[in-house]
Hints:
alpha+beta
Amino acid sequence: MRGVKIIITAILFCFSSILCAQSFKDYYKKANRYYKMGDYHRAAINFQKAIRQKPGNAKATYRLGLAYLAGNDKKEALKYIEKVYKLNPRIDSEVEYYLGMAYQYHHRFNDARAAFTRYKERNKKRADVADYKISECNFADSLIRNPLNAEVENMGKNINSRFNDYTPLIYNDGKSMVLTSNRPGSTGGLRLSDGTYYEDIYVSHLVEGIWSMPDKIGEGVNIRFHDAAASISPDGKMLFLYYEKGGGDIYVSKYVDGEWTKPDPLNDHINTFFWETAASITADGKTLYFTSDRAGGMGDLDIYKSELDENGEWGEAVNLGPVINTPHGEDAPYIHPDGKTLYFGSNGHLGMGSHDIFYSEIKDGVFQEPVNMGYPVNTVFNDNYFVITPDRKRAYYASLRPEGEGMADIYSIDMEKALKPKEKPKYEEIVAEEIIAEAETELEDIVATTSPAVPVDVSDEVVKVEEKATVKYYDENLVKMQKDLKVVTILKGKVIDAATAKPLYARLRLMNNETNTMLAELTSDPNTGEFELIIPHGGNYGVSTSKLGYLFNSINFDLPAFHEFQEIDTHIILQKAKVGSKVVLKNIFFDIGKSDLRTESLAELDGIKELLSENALLQVQINGHTDNVGNAVYNKVLSKKRAQAVVDYLIANGVDSGRLSAKGFGEERPLVSNDDEKDGREINRRTEIEITGVGEAAIVSN
């Protein structure tokens, strides 16, 4: 009997194990099916169920991370993808790409760049994609380090729901807003697979400074299927909207006797068999800007314009061309009532990682190069549907940032504040404020301990303290204060001409080589050539000094975070741009034994490009040098490859190949003895730029 029990138990255990295995397989298959359908929410739920059946399963964990990355919970992706990557970096040929994206959403740009670099090394054919993502990281890092003086405010729970709320359209009086939402209660009650409802159009009103809960816009406008607001004409009498009919078309409703009429489709020049999503009309009513993915475009959604003809019909659509449109998507055009500025969303122009908002000014009928609106208006998440009031005082748009009320939320910006340059407080002012605060606290303590019968007016005393604090701090040596803090290096001295030793008026730039961002820019004194530059610790920095008509000077500082304070007094020597002039490029970096440029070299490479752009007839040779370690033939080949890598970068970035050459000298031309590393071999391993030809227009002086 006991044996029978053991057999039955064993059978049940095996059957239970089979069920678990089947359940894992079922959930995993179902999750992948949802993922392929684009239903990332349900895909994530089923991947989670699969993982509960087999905790730690690498494939399911990885796929869960991908589902989060593709869906709305992008910041959730990192912990899953990173975990699996550490366990098995070969789980997928695309894993470094997805890992880089996940880092990007967390503002971990150094990690993202490293992941994209590894991805490029593994996928040579996708190098252009990886390089573009690295450019995004560099760009996003730079914008975040130099934010606009703007406060982006979520419009709160009255406007935003836990669902998608977007396309804010503001009436000219600023007191009413039309918006689109897929919240519960939509017309027809239809739902998508992710639980959201079909889109409807709503209206909210500003009452005593508070936006009302949105109501549906009115009968006859919302339909059973998707409908979304696109724009309101400047006079408030026409509402352009998107209807999900055919491939998706643009309709217009008119405001008559206090009601919006049943929308009518625009003509065949606007609506086609393809997808038309958004439209915006000029104040004079004669030009319509709209988006379409019709055949013959630049790729994906493009922005087009159509002019009203003499019969009151929209004429043939004209693509705005490659200045505005890219092979990727441009969406939600908004033409300002002044007719001079076009705002739009794009994931094709260089941005922070997803859809960013751009604007292009129209000068003499020509669209200028689009400008990114900057951080914190744009983020690494989707930002789109930007509109701005006629007086440019306030703007509204939609963003999918994770700290919102739900999915996409509507935000507002005080544009008057945003357009003012952000003044960075001077270090001495901050210290003075601290002294003032301490003094005010002491005065308050005196008042608190003084008899109420004896009033004490501290205002004059505060003024005296403020004056004293300012004088005291300015009388103290700024260098001493920073030396006490031990967090900086101070580089000071003069910029002089190499031949005459005369002082030069030149531009100095401090670049963070790790992020390719400029931290400071200043000029030397026009009369004395003197300068002073403060370099923070905890990074790899390059100092580039340039003057038109001269070769630039390059200095590198690799400073640990807890490096001691130091003051360096030096002369920066600039050589006239003439045949035979050469300078060592201190901020060009390669890994040991490799010829691939490291990303820390970008700032220096751009400096060479700028030199060649400003001096149009210069011809230069890039020289590579090594130390004497290893085989001499190998060293010469390696030095040539490194020089060629610099040349290849410049050619790839628009420099005429006829102006460039590369030469490798190996260990043949040491600057110093190779007997030791720090003061010898390290100095001899170098890359130089040498001028080999100069034309009449090549030398330009300030």
